[in-house]
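Sequence, structure tokens quoted for completeness.
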Amino acid sequence: MNVILRSMLAATLIAGSAHAQKELPPVPAAVEESFARLTSHAGITGALTSIKGASVRMFEEQIRINEIPAPPFKEQARAEYYLKKMRETGLPDAYIDKEGNVIGVRAGTGKGPRLVVSAHLDTVFPEGTDVKVREKDGRYYAPGIYDDALGLTNLLTVLETLNKGNIKTVGDIIFVGTVGEEELGDLRGVKALFRDIRDIDGFISLDGVGLGRIVNHATGSHRYLATFKGPGGHSFSAFGLPSAIHAMGRAVAKIGDLVPPAEPKTTFTVGTVNGGTSVNAIAATSTIGIDIRSNGNAALIEFEKKVLAALQDAVNEENARWKSDKISVEIKQVGDRPAGVTPIDSPIIQAARAAMPRVGAQVRSITASSTDSNLPMSLGIPAITLSSSGIGGGSHSPGEWYSPVNNHVGAQNVFLLALALAGMEGVTAPLLSKRPAR
């Protein structure tokens, strides 16, 4: 691989790591001891070497997955391929559930915890997007190339490594390719997963690039479509009637003037506007799309009230301007991603912090984001989202790119972490505890 790219990766792993680790409590000795036992076991050292040797094959699989389109709500073709791979890799009973998730259970040997390791099947890009991978100067360009074809590939690598090494875990590991993580999918896949499987004890999501990031804080979001409706009419002969677009404009201005709290971080945007039929017509309809986010559920709900009030105030002002009652607004919630947090002293975070140095990586940040882990965090189930290794950029853009520099390290990391959490028969007890039945 390109020497410059290797240097970039090393610098990225080192930068910021001292700050991130300085503020964290020490990893408990029992957790470090568990990893010491695993990494001194011949079967595990061999497995880690095997993953490194598979790096080229892993990237070839990543490309194959990426070139199967999986736009929002249309993930079926990729799901069918992924089901085939999961079955070929050692889970013959893997299946696609009613929501479209691909699920395979690798049973443990005893009454241990049930750990989900997941990545999302869908991309943010609409149907018809060209997802063919193209190489230029050591970079591989394609929409979705690391978000989340990379995570899906690492999932298969972990499964294959466990099966080839005949490694027996105490707890079950449930491998899942989820649908609906992106855009207006509204976490429908992971919501269905936790609705249908009630005894999940821990959850790991693989999403994005930049090994060293641990997401333990779920940024919640509420999304709305607000449709303003009025009588409509000719811009000259019907002048004096209220306008749906004018009401919409008032609403956008009012929302834009709102001031959210700084802590917990709370944000908003009017992301889309649509409406009207002609430049010389008083608009009968107009619609705006609104995204409200916060790292705290209470703050999210309080700020949401202000946004919704602004919509009604805009209607009232437009009607008052023309002495009318013809303008109304229809508000539809189209997204609900709950906020939540996995405490910093949770065993799943302690284990994630202990795993990374064992594969030559460092924790760069423990941070907040909106991912599939939102749902389990909101339920109080230990959950984190991890990025994978390599170098990339341009997420959610047509210019998304990836270079597979040390791409095996991310797979090694999640392999070791999953094994420690589930426990290895005769070697380590599970670090993840069983939870009371929900």
About this structure: The longest helix spans residues 297-321. The longest strand covers residues 220-229. Confidence is low (pLDDT under 50) at residues 1-21. DSSP finds 13 helices and 19 strands in the chain.
